[in-house]
Amino acid sequence: MTCRALSGRPLSEITLEAAARGDLSPADLRIHPDTLRRQAQTAEQHGNPQLADNLRRAAELTALSDEELLAVYDALRPGRSTRADLQTVAAHLEASGAPSCAALVMEAAEVYERRVLLRSG
Amino acid sequence: MPSLHNDVSDGRAILRADNQDGSVQGSAAPGGPAHGGSPTGLGGSQGRLGRFTGLDARPVNLDGVSHEDHDAGLVAFASANDPEPSVEIDGEGRVVQLDGVQADKFDLIDAYIAAHGIDAAVAIEANGLPEAEFARLVVDPATPREEVVRLARGATPAKLACVVALLRPVELQMAVAKMRVRRTPAIQAHVTNVLDDPLLLAADAATAVAFGFRELETTVPVLGDAPSNALALLIGSQVGAAGALTQCSIEEALELELGLRGLTTYAETVSLYGTEQVFVDGDDTPWSKAFLCSAYASRGLKMRVTSGGGAEALMGAAEGKSMCHLESRCVALARAMGAQGVQNGGIDGASVVGSVPGGMRELLAENLLVMLRDLESCSGNDSLVSESDMRRTAHTVPLFLAGSDFLFSGFGSIVRYDNMFGPSNFNGEDLDDYLLLQRDWGVDGGLRPVDEARMREVRERAAKAVQAVYRELGLADFGDERVEEIVLAEGSRDLSPLDPTVVLQAADAIQDRELGILDVVGALERTGFRDEAERVLAMGRARVIGDYLQTAAVFDEEMNVLSKVTDPNDYQGPGTGYEVSAARRAEMEGVRQERSRQDLLERQATHAGHVRLVERGEAVPGTDPREVCVGVSPAFGTELWLTTSGLPAGEALRQILAGLEEESCTARLVRVRASIDLGMIGLTAARLAGSGIGIGLQAKGTALIHRRDLLPLAGLELYSIAPLVTKEMYRALGTNAGRHAKGQRPVPVRNPPTEQAIEARYHAEVVAMVAVERGACRPGAPPVDLELLP
What we know:
By secondary structure, chain A is an all-alpha fold. Chain A has 6 helices and no strands.
């Protein structure tokens, strides 16, 4: 299977010559979600389903911008979000094709509520 | 190194202060240990014993040593407050009770581990296994690694903590050798400097790569400099060889940002803690950290988390649990989150762990916990755990001998003062020691010797590459004289001052313009650093491929990925597992201090011919009662010319003759050809002497006085430590021999006292010289008279 960057450019075209011509963009050096899912499969086959889950979440997150990633991370830090905030984040993730990340956020919301780590009000 | 939050350094300062008044020193005499101790009085019952004042002054007594305190978490293993291992699984395979805590009482850490970290299919089996039996499976080479990993998947944190607590040090080593993930060991370096000088960072990064480090970690004294440091490290890391991974340890959000732009190629300072309080104080939760793991992976970045014993006690929130128990929770959490690896083994809290009984064993057990969870171990040894060279070395050596995925999570590849993490347990000053340790034990510690020409080449190339890229990108303009300074410098103190705003402005520009890996590749290519451009780009391509996201992945210098998938540890006892190849062995053995026999004898030639001894026929016993015979060794003044002290052999001989002359004795010279043994040479001379007194002198400078009626090895006076014998001492030996000949009883000459490892210094050379003597030896040949030509 041809390995492609997030941009769709095949690995074979990611060369110094292309870089020198200015043909490459950051998305040409970003991993493709299919590649991450393949790596998840490999991790699963080698006995680490948790690493596989992580890589599957990562595959979902390829669709998010850097700013969005940082925003979700920040929302998950203690005392940053109300339950509703986290629900909004989860809904956004769900809508962005990141259901397992959304599930992680909702799981956090449950535990944060019990451990009093939600922002009040 | 983890980026523990600020309170930690405060906590550390407080701990130090406690030690200053001696309150934690177990057996200190009144007045305290080194800090307070001063000699009082002049002996008698009031005086401090000299044996204690001497010991007090030893560096080890600067180390803080704590009473075990279970409630404060100052206990390595098995606190009275540690829970009994237990687990309950409900009908749907959910963990509803973990180590004595019911689901509704789970804290953040319990909750995450219960939800993601316990394999319900194995939990009952693994936790039902008696701990001693579990521990034996861990150590036993006949039990496959995979079987232990399978059981560990179901084991609770308390269970694994109890299992590793049972292992004796040598069993821990066996377990580490078997359980580490990757077959081929590797090592990580710290590369930092006080100035954040980008040229020096790059030169030191290239130097580290030349030594064989495969991961390079930097950090900043000034946070704003971070983008510049990351960029300089990235360039320097790809000089000389491909594939070294780089990271910049800073505040988590900025670290992620630099990683996303490709200026770093892995991350490890995602810190985990074993209690909820400390976790939340660190402004994170298991969920925020798990998300961070996925975020890094989404950009194809390798990432591991950081934990390490002692952190919770240092933060005053250990909940009375043992360090091993809390660390076992961290490691279980790391696995649950899907991190591929863990940096632990104390880390910032290493000295806290080291202060309690069993602490050093606990640090090694932490590394094993990671391996049991089938994660990459980046095994600490990255902060100086003791002022004592013996203690700090003893901390590292057991792991070093056993091997790890990363033996250090930061060997200080630069000199101590330039390490912005604080000194590591081993530092730039220790590189030769480390290379010799590898050679001594035949153990692959991941490093190789570097000769001066090679080091000059890579340092210059790296500094010039960064100079060129900073100019090309309009970040800063460093002059050629700066490059030359950098190449020669041991560290930043050897450099002329650097305007700190230069680095800050460069860093700001990198941020403002959002420069990333492609800008670096382009600039390198345009300025003629094509190899480096290719290699930096290759690090970018590696992210697209993603193979280095697998557990324990590292690149070799041909960009092959070595990981759990491609290079799994297959140790199953003697003759299995990682084997040092012949080429690698030769590389490790070829340290720059190594000398051939020819090299060792080189300085002999510089004095060839300075003394001329002519043989005058077979020697027969003399009759003159004033005659003292000086017997020299077979190669004396024929092939060997210099004693080990550096004194020409002829000069040693002349001094002996002068001493004899002072006593009005007749000196007679013979060469003993049949033996190289000093006692036999001296005795042979004594038997030929009219007085019955002889002197034996080997070319290496060892000398004695003998008498004809004594046994060969029982001479009268002896200089056994040739490297310390001076001209004056040879003269005194001659004088004393003369006095013995006259029937007097002189004050014997003495070997000078020494604290040097005199044998370590000279024995390699002595072996070479003895071989020459042996070659010149003619067993059975009678001694011959010699004439000393003027």
